Amino acid sequence: MTRAGTTPAAGTATPGIPGGDAVATTTADAVSWIQSLFPTAGAKLAASVLATAAVVALLVGIRRAGPLLKDRFEGRDLAIESLQATAAAATVVASGLFVVVVWEGVSLLDTAVPSEVFSGRNVARTVLTVGILGGATLLTRLTKRTIRKIGQDRTALSDHQSEIAHHVVQVAVYAVSLIVVFAVWGVNPGSLLVGAGFAGIVLGLAARQTLGAVLAGFVVLFSRPFELGDWVVIDDQEGVVTDITIVNTQIRTFDDEYVMIPNDHVTDTDVVNRSRKGRLRLNLDVGVDYGTDVDEAIEVAEEAMRDHDLVLSVPEPHVVLTGFGDSSVGLRLRFYIDNPSARKMWKARTRVTLAVKRAFEEAGIKIPFPQRELTGRAETGGFRVADGEAVEGSGRDRAVDAEANGGRADGGPSGDGGGGDGSPAADDAGGDDA
C-alpha cells in the first residue's frame, strides 16, 4: 500500500497526510500483533468462526435494542434507526477487516490492488461517497416518516399513495446523490445522461404501451377515483378493488373472478364508484291498479320501506310517479343503504320487495299484470267458440297474454287494446259473455 508521502507508480507525488506516518506505523503494529495471536490454520479458522458468531449476536442485539430505545426515547425514532444502521455497518466492517488480518490478507490485497487506489485523494473520495450515500439514506427515511405523518394527520393520502410518494422521493434523492458522487470522482454526468437519453428513446419505442400504463398508474394513484375495497364499475367489469399497482388495477367480481385491468384502460374509460360516499341509492319499480288511490299506495310503500332495518332513515325513503303504463300507474321506490356491497344491495332489494308486496296485500292495493282485450267485429261474424256457433254483435272476451295466440281467436281479427267501454284498466272491463 502507498504510505503517506511516497510516490506512486505514475510518478506523481501524492500529498502527505498530517500524522500519516504515525497512523501507518500503529496500524502495522496492530496487524502484526493480531496475526501473532493466530499462528496456525486451526487458530485462524476458530477466530473466523468466533468473529462470525460475534457479528450475528451483535446484529441481533442491535435489532432488539431498537424497540426498547424507541419506547424510552419517544419521538426520536429516526435518530435511533440511524444509530442502529451505523452500528450494524461498523460491526460488519470491523468483522470483515478482522478476518482479512487474521488470514494475512493485507499483503495479498496490497499485491492484487494497485497502490494508486489507496492514495490519500481516493481515500477522501471514498469517505465522502459513503457519507453522501449515508446522508441520502437518512434523508429518505426522514421523508418517509414525514409523508406517512401527513397522510395520517390530514387524511390527504392513503397508505398506498403514501408508499408511492415515498418511493418517488427516494428515487429523486438517490438520483441527486449519484450525480454528486460522480462529480466527486471527476466523472462527467453529461456523457451518462446522453447515453441514458438514447436508451430512453429505444426503451420508449419498445415498451410504449407498458410505459403508458405506468404513467396512467401514477394518475390513478394520485387522482384517487377509487381506493382499495371500493365497489366500482370499469367499462363492463364490476367488482371490488383488491389491489392497485403502477401497471394495473385488480378487481374481484361478484363471481369470485379476479380481473386485471391496465391502468391506461382505466383512465380512458368511465369509472363508476358505487361506494365512494359510503351509501348507495337503490330504485325499485312497481305498478298499482288504475282504480287504486295513488296517494294511499305511496304512503303504504314509504311506510313499508321505513320499517326495514337495511334502509337508511336519512335520507328518507320516498316514492315518485314514473307515468302511466298499459295497465298500471308506475311508482318508483327510492331508498338508501350504507356501506354498500353487491350482497347487501341484493339483500335490501329482496326484503324491500317482499315488505312492499305484503303491505299492498294488507291494504287491498292491487298490483296488476299485463292484460289485453280482444273484440270481434260484427261484419266478420264475431268470435267463434268451440261448438262452432258465431257470436253476433260486438261481444268481447278477455284473454290473458294475447301474445300466446297471436292476437286472434278462431279466425277473428284482433282489435285494439283500448277496450269497448273506454275504461283504461283492461282487467276492469268484463264485456258480454259469449
Question: How is this structure best described in words?
Answer:
There is one protein chain. With 434 residues, the protein is of the alpha+beta class. Helices cover 51% and strands 14% of the residues. The protein is built from eleven helices and ten strands. Strands 4-3-2-1-5 form a five-stranded antiparallel beta sheet. A three-stranded antiparallel beta sheet has the order 6-8-7, covered by helices on one side. The chain is elongated and about 130 Å long. The relative contact order is 0.05. The model is unreliable at 1-17 and 390-434 (pLDDT under 50).
List descriptors.
single chain, 434 residues, alpha+beta, 11 helices, elongated, disordered N terminus
Low-confidence stretches: 1-17, 390-434
Task: Give the helix proportion (percent range).
Answer: 40-55%
Adjacency order of strands in the biggest sheet: 4-3-2-1-5
N to C succession of SSEs: HHHHHHHHEEEEHEEHEEHEE
Radius of gyration: 42 Å
**Morphology:** elongated
CA distance, first residue to last residue:
124 Å
Mean pLDDT: 75
Structural class: alpha+beta
How many beta-strand segments?
10
Number of helices: 11
User: How would you characterize the largest beta sheet?
Assistant: 5 strands, antiparallel
